[in-house]
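2024-03-11 09:14:02 INFO worker-7 job=invfold-0412 stage=load source=structure_tokens
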């Protein structure tokens, strides 16, 4: 039932999109006709594209110098880069993706060259294993990387899938404290993913969610430990590890460890946001819900908005009388200096309304009010359009785009009274002339897309104002938060591979081997864990408590201390002043005396003379830098750093898989009997095509043979005697 439920989530959502689009055109002639308080902005240009633009919101980026340009995704498997000056394609754009795009682009200079990079997901909810992945592009439209998220039955997936859809939008920040920008996103599978700026998988990831994640992550240091945390929403169903019917919001550390979770009885399609909404100096996490379980057996929470404390405790919830699929907006609507909560509604008694509430969930003056174009799924965007000190609302709807006063709820102007808009407008002065621009993207006919740039008039005195939310997820990195989430944390630069006298590793910090393949992490729960090859636990202290730091004492003892000052664990190597802890490239953690004598070791080095691979050895896998040797030591099978699997005789290479050019690939002897080389994105590069297995043996004659349980050869390199 669990896997059936997940498939239905995906397919049901596609049907819901169809319902919305149908309504958009039924309602296209019904919109507000109130006298405008402001002169409507002027249309600067309108650009039609062949692909249907649905939930991808426009983002601004400098693609060619001068006026800021626009990036937006469409359902024709393209990401469009549109010149801000005139709406024409920027050089090198559009960029091609493998699947339709609902994700919105996050943008930052992650390489330090002064030029922006673009990150966006691909894939929509059409079926199980719908395909897509995470893309990064240079500003000239060339592809930096394409990461394929994957699921296995062993990780809770419905079936093996090496290409999951990524509908959620990425968020960018230095999440594992290494002075590099990370990319966090959900997938339409059972896991959440974190990549570094070059597209490699982060330590401790992926995070097992247990069901699909349509929502986008919010970033911020919610536990006040000096490191950016992740707040993610997603779905839950019966039968898996979580074994819960509904949805969850979870706080996760940058190393993929859950800090807390909050459950509701409906999926969390709405993307959480972070901000101090009651002025007490502590942030809240605010989110809506979804409608899958309401439509499949019933749910009570599908029409609610929730506000949690920074520790995940419920502060309040409010039933709005209609489905709350949209992500909330945190902005100061009434101009009192405190953030308020805004959200639009979907189906229900109060469908198609805009709510503006204070930090306790009470209505602000003039709200709720009709959206003007019925259903709302996009996040509200804001700016001080009438220069009265309050943040005014620009909302995309199922039939047009409208602007309302944040202080009174009065209609300021109708930007467009027809067309389907299911995302968030972008409000920014694109050309630096002092006049705000409003960029909207949608579909006029349920087939093609349109992007429009409007400019406010000089007489309006419009400005971004204070405490505003001018685009989807608030900013270019799409942090969804009022907390600072640095793109690069200089305090985490150049990770150490050793500890000398009186040096420490703080809780939730780490040291790393020079080859980047092993990491020693002091976990918040009090355990010290040595990871190898990204996610393999090679050693653990088996300790627990509330750790403060791991200290290499001046007497040579390595001690884990609690916040209360007590010792939680130690190596017992005191009495050796000047000793050092070294995390070696072979995966072993060793304490050496000042004279080079080994005082203590974790015993976690990779064996160099193992002659076979099965589930008992290496867990049926070989990672970069690992090797096996024939029993006589003459032949070597190496999983090389460059991704190639190579068999060496004493004098030369005698066989290879031909998979070089794919750094940090791995060899897997799968339960189904196939032996496969996968790249770091879990894409198969080479395989034997076998369907039985027991072990892979490198024989003394130089032949590499895969045997079944009856000791019958299934596959071999045929290199015997070479």
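2024-03-11 09:14:09 INFO worker-7 stage=emit residues=722
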């Amino acid at each position: 039932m669990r896997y059936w439920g997940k498939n239905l989530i995906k397919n049901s959502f596609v049907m819901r999109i169809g319902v919305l689009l149908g309504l958009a055109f039924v309602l296209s002639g019904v919109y507000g006709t109130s006298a405008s308080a402001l002169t409507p902005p002027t249309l600067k240009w309108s650009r039609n594209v062949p692909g249907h633009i649905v939930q991808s919101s426009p983002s601004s980026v400098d693609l060619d110098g001068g006026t800021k340009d626009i990036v937006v995704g469409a359902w024709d498997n393209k990401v469009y880069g549109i010149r801000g000056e005139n709406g024409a394609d920027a050089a090198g754009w559009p960029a091609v993706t493998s699947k339709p795009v609902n994700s919105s682009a996050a943008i930052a200079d992650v390489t330090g060259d002064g030029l922006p990079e673009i990150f966006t997901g691909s894939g929509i909810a059409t079926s199980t294993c719908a395909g897509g992945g995470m893309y990064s592009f240079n500003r000239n439209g060339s592809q930096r990387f394409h990461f394929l998220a994957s699921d296995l039955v062993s990780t809770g997936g419905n079936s093996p899938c090496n290409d999951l859809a990524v509908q959620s939008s990425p968020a960018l920040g230095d999440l594992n404290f290494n002075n590099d920008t990370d990319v966090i996103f959900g997938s339409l599978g059972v896991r959440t993913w974190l990549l570094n700026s070059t597209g490699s998988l982060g330590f401790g990831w992926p995070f097992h969610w247990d069901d699909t994640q349509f929502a986008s992550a919010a970033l911020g240091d919610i536990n006040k430990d000096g490191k950016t945390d992740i707040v993610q929403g997603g779905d839950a169903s019966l039968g898996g590890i979580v074994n819960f019917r509904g949805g969850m919001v979870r706080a996760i550390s940058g190393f993929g460890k859950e800090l807390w979770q909050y459950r509701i009885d409906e999926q969390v399609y709405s993307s959480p946001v972070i901000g101090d909404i009651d002025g007490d100096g502590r942030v809240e996490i605010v989110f809506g819900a979804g409608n899958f379980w309401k439509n499949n057996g019933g749910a009570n929470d599908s029409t609610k908005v929730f506000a949690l404390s920074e520790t995940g405790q419920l502060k309040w919830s409010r039933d709005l009388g209609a489905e709350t699929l949209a992500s909330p907006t945190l902005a100061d609507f009434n101009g009192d200096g405190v953030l308020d909560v805004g959200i639009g509604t979907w189906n229900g008694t109060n469908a198609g309304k805009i709510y503006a509430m204070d930090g306790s969930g009470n209505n602000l003056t003039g709200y709720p009010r009709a959206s003007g174009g019925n259903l709302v799924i996009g996040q509200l965007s804001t700016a001080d359009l009438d220069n009265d000190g309050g943040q005014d609302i620009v909302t995309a709807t199922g039939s047009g785009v409208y602007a309302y006063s944040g202080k009174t709820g009065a209609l300021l102007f109708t930007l467009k009274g027809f067309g389907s808009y299911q995302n968030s407008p972008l409000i920014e002065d694109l050309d630096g002339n002092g006049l705000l621009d409003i960029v909207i993207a949608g579909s006029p006919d349920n087939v093609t897309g349109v992007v429009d740039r409007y400019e406010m008039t000089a007489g309006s005195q419009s400005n971004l104002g204070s405490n505003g939310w001018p685009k989807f997820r608030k900013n270019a990195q799409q942090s969804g938060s009022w907390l600072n989430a640095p793109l690069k944390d200089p305090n985490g630069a150049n990770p150490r591979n050793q500890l000398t006298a009186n040096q420490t590793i703080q809780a939730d910090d780490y040291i790393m081997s020079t080859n980047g393949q092993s990491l020693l992490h002091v976990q918040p729960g009090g355990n010290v864990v040595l990871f190898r090859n990204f996610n393999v636990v090679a050693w653990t202290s088996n300790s627990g408590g509330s750790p403060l730091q791991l200290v290499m004492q001046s007497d040579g003892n390595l001690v884990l201390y609690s916040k209360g000052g007590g010792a939680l664990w130690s190596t017992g190597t005191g009495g050796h002043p000047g000793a050092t802890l070294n995390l070696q490239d072979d995966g072993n953690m060793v304490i050496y005396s000042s004279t080079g004598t080994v005082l203590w070791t974790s015993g976690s080095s990779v064996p160099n003379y193992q002659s076979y691979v099965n589930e008992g050895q290496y867990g049926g896998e070989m990672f970069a830098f690992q090797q096996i040797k024939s029993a006589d030591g003459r032949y070597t099978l190496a999983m090389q750093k460059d991704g190639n699997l190579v068999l060496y005789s004493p004098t030369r290479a005698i066989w290879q898989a031909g998979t070089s050019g794919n750094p940090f690939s791995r060899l897997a002897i799968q339960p189904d009997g196939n032996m496969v080389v996968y790249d770091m994105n879990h894409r198969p590069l080479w395989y034997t095509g076998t369907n039985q297995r027991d072990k892979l043996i490198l024989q003394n004659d130089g032949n590499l043979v895969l045997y079944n349980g009856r000791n019958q050869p299934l596959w071999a390199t045929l290199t015997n005697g070479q």
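2024-03-11 09:14:09 INFO worker-7 stage=report msg="Residues 1-35, 615-619 have pLDDT under 50 and may be disordered."
2024-03-11 09:14:10 INFO worker-7 job finished
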